[in-house]
TrEMBL record:
InterPro entries: Membrane-Transporter-like, SLC26A/SulP_dom, STAS_dom, STAS_dom_sf. The chain crosses the membrane at residues 40-56, 85-103, 115-133, 153-170, 177-196, 226-248, 269-292, 298-318, 325-342, 362-390. Keywords: Membrane, Transmembrane, Transmembrane helix. CDD domains: STAS_SulP_like_sulfate_transporter (cd07042). It is a multi-pass membrane protein. PANTHER family: SULFATE TRANSPORTER YBAR-RELATED. Its main location: membrane. Gene3D superfamilies: STAS domain. This is SulP family inorganic anion transporter. The keyword Transmembrane helix applies. It is found in: Membrane. One of its GO terms (cellular component) is membrane.
Amino acid sequence: MRETYSFSEVKNNVLSGLLIALALVPEAIAFSLVAHVPLISGLYGAFFMVLITSVLGGRPGMVSAFSGATAVVMTALMLKYGIDYVFAAVVLMGIIQIIFSLAKLSKYVRIIPRQVNLGFINGLAVVIFLAQLDHFKVPVPSGGEQWMHGSQLYIMLGLVALTMAVIYLLPLLTKAIPATLSGAVVTTLAVIFFHIPTTTVGDIAHLAGNLPTFHIPDVPFSWHTLYIVAPYSFILAANALVETLLTLNLIDEMTDSRGQPNKESMAQGLGNLVSGFFGATGGCALLGESIINVTNNALKRLSGITTAIALMAIILFASHWIEQVPIAALVGIMFVVVEKTFEWSSLRFFGKLPAADVAIGILVAAITIFVNITLAVLTGVILSALLFAWEHAKHMSIKTRDDEQGRRIYEVDGTLFFASAHQFSELFNPKEDPENVIIDFKNARIIDHSAIQAIDSLAERYKRRGKMVQLRHLCKDCMDLLTNAKDLCIFDIDDPRYHVADDKIS
């Protein structure tokens, strides 16, 4: 569908796009340092991902770029095999994501439990934090590294603190300027003006301010190469999809709208595929920048297109200035990213949530830190699903009453999904019920396609006996998905709002 814009929407999307481009530059460089990849590759990754997902994605306004979820996985591959193997892994990552989209598997991310999501986010924050500690080490003449000490350490800590102070305090004065950009600029100017001895981006790598060029990864085309890169590609693809689709879900909730996760997965796969062939790192959705767009009412594709154009302009014409940014400033930015990523509210759940839920969240965080994000989320989902099915399948119930018109009213209470669908069907008696029946789902929640089929089958049982049945307080997704019972739904202004995991609307 072709987007139309009012003058206000053009202004909001262009200004927000420029703002995000300025904020992405220091973050892309910082994540490149985490992954030990060339800094220009991280910037190219941000350019390709934000451009392709903005044009082709299923959630306009969501920002994709090089991210922590992908950077932490690339580190081992980069250090052991080199950058061309990273590019090959990014190409395969894109292909895996495209297959994931074609198989319409994105719907399953909608049912990742909250405690698993919290554990994944907190674990990722810790991983990014630990990666920054390497910047507090210096090489020694005898080989190896040691921790900074003395004036070198104090300078590093002081510049990190200055960057973080600017990022936290500037929004109290104005939100017109990106705080992360301001933190990097202020610290850079302080280093230049006072001639502070510290490591800068230019000391680590030279940023060639050129357009990206087509580059087939220089790796042997063999089964051995596939054996090397495939595990990394699967983890990269899974990490990126989980972070992207969880971000998409959050934006859906914030905007009371619905994105298209399969379309977004396809766009992300294409973005990573292209990135790998143009010397870029690829990436996935970024929660922070996406929320900035939502806050600025920049929910059109124009915002991402503007971000991509501005990013490339910065790469081409401002690379010399980027090289003067101190590493300490980037560390400070990443410490802020860690603080804002970590779900501090989850600490309040101890003693308030069931012990099993808290334990699952802690386990997911631990596996994220010590193994990888994909295994962590998979483990958490399996454990949560088993716990959920056990607890909720036995809590499906109905209350029955007859109104003054002789209609039988069933009030459904509980969660309707694959484990409780059979029990749900047995709670009704079409043979003995009167001619008119009302089934009220106000206190129920419909989860998956099995639940939709159970409602359709129940409606068919009543129809075969020539009885009139009405379905009330179903969410919009349910009404769209039903077939036999579609014309039996009664719309109410207080109908619940939630999403159902199903291929037809994914």
